[in-house]
Structures are given as structure tokens and as C-alpha cells.
């Protein structure tokens, strides 16, 4: 079993997506199947085969989203915590060449957007930050090479 960490907002988005797939998208594919059947011989009917394939893909996606929604763990906002956890926003100082200050949000892998500072708890950098405290220095091996940060603030 995999842990799916999501914010409450993201979980609501996933629920809405699931409803859309179950209602609108299923109806669309059912209509395509109905139209394709009207062309006759199903064994040589490309439109029918494509619609059946689309139906299989849709049902697989629905099952995955249902499991995600059922198993999701909500990321709670961390207030006053002195250790980094999922949901923490951390201000760090980089020690790689030029010293720079960055802000990262530690999120679940489904919400990660490194270019926006949202790093996954499963990434090398995210793993290195977990359970660390203000003032701690972390070193992480990333695809871009080794990085070194000191944690300045945790919120």
C-alpha cells in the first residue's frame, strides 16, 4: 500500500475529477460505443476497438482515483512544530557556491512541483529535510548533484 499525501484542497479536486470521469466521461464513451456498433461487424470495426480501448483506460483511471481518494492522508498545516514534516514550509539557506535563501513546502509526491518550491517527501531533498530542526544542516544527493542547506525557519 502506498501513502498518498494530499492537501484538503487537492483531495477535493481529485474527488471532482472522479465524479466527472464517472459521469460525463463514461457517458461520452458509452455514446461512442453505441455509434460504433451501428457500423456493423465489430471484429473489423476500428471505431469500436478504439472506443473499447478508451473505455478500458477510463475504467483503470477511475479505479486508481477511487483508491487514491479512499487512501489519501490529509496534510495538516503545521503550526509551532520544531521538526520538519509533511506540510511544513521551511526557509533554508543554501551553501552551494553562492549563499541563497529559498523557501520550500514539503508535500506528497502527487502535489510536488519543484519549480514552485513544492518538494515531495519522497524526493532526495524532501527525505533529507524530514524530521530535521531549525539550525540543522542537511546534505542531499540530487540528480543535479550534492546540495547543502541550513534550516532557518519551520512553519
CATH topology of the largest domain: Helix Hairpins
Helix content: 40-55%
Indicate the CATH class of the largest domain.
Mainly Alpha
Approximately how much beta-strand content do the residues carry?
15-25%
Q: Structural class, from helix and strand content?
A: alpha/beta
Question: Superfamily at the CATH H level of the largest domain?
Answer: Transcription elongation factor, GreA/GreB, N-terminal domain
Give the N-terminus to C-terminus distance in angstroms.
Answer: 29 Å
- The total number of structural domains is 2
Strand order of the largest sheet: 5-4-3-7-6
**What is the molecular shape?**
elongated
| DSSP helical segment count | 3
CATH architecture of the largest domain: Orthogonal Bundle
Tell me about the biggest sheet? 5 strands, mixed
Uncertain spans: none
| Secondary-structure element order, N to C | EHHEEEEHEE
The counted number of beta strands is 7
Alpha-carbon Rg, integer: 22 Å
Mean pLDDT: 89
Explain this structure.
The protein has three helices and seven strands; from the N terminus they run E-H-H-E-E-E-E-H-E-E. The chain is α/β, with parallel strands linked by helices. It has two domains: 4-74, Orthogonal Bundle (Helix Hairpins), CATH 1.10.287.180; 89-154, Transcription elongation factor, GreA/GreB, C-terminal domain (Chitinase A, domain 3). It has a five-stranded mixed beta sheet. Strands 1-2 form a two-stranded parallel sheet. A hairpin with a 2-residue loop joins strand 6 (137-142) and strand 7 (145-154). Helix 1 packs antiparallel against helix 2 (46-71).
Amino acid at each position: 500500500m502506498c501513502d498518498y499525501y494530499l492537501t484538503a484542497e487537492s483531495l477535493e479536486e481529485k474527488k471532482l475529477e472522479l465524479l466527472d470521469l464517472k459521469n460525463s466521461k463514461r457517458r461520452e464513451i458509452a455514446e461512442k460505443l453505441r455509434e460504433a456498433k451501428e457500423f456493423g461487424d465489430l471484429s473489423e470495426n476500428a471505431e469500436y476497438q478504439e472506443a473499447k480501448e478508451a473505455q478500458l483506460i477510463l475504467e483503470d483511471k477511475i479505479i486508481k482515483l477511487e483508491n487514491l481518494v479512499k487512501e489519501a492522508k490529509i496534510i495538516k498545516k503545521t503550526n509551532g512544530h520544531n521538526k520538519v514534516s509533511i506540510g511544513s514550509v521551511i526557509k533554508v539557506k543554501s551553501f552551494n557556491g553562492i549563499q541563497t535563501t529559498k523557501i520550500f513546502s514539503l508535500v506528497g509526491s502527487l502535489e510536488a512541483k519543484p519549480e514552485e518550491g513544492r518538494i515531495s517527501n519522497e524526493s532526495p531533498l524532501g527525505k533529507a529535510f524530514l524530521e530535521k530542526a531549525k539550525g540543522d544542516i542537511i546534505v542531499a544527493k540530487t540528480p543535479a548533484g550534492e546540495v547543502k542547506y541550513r534550516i532557518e525557519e519551520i512553519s
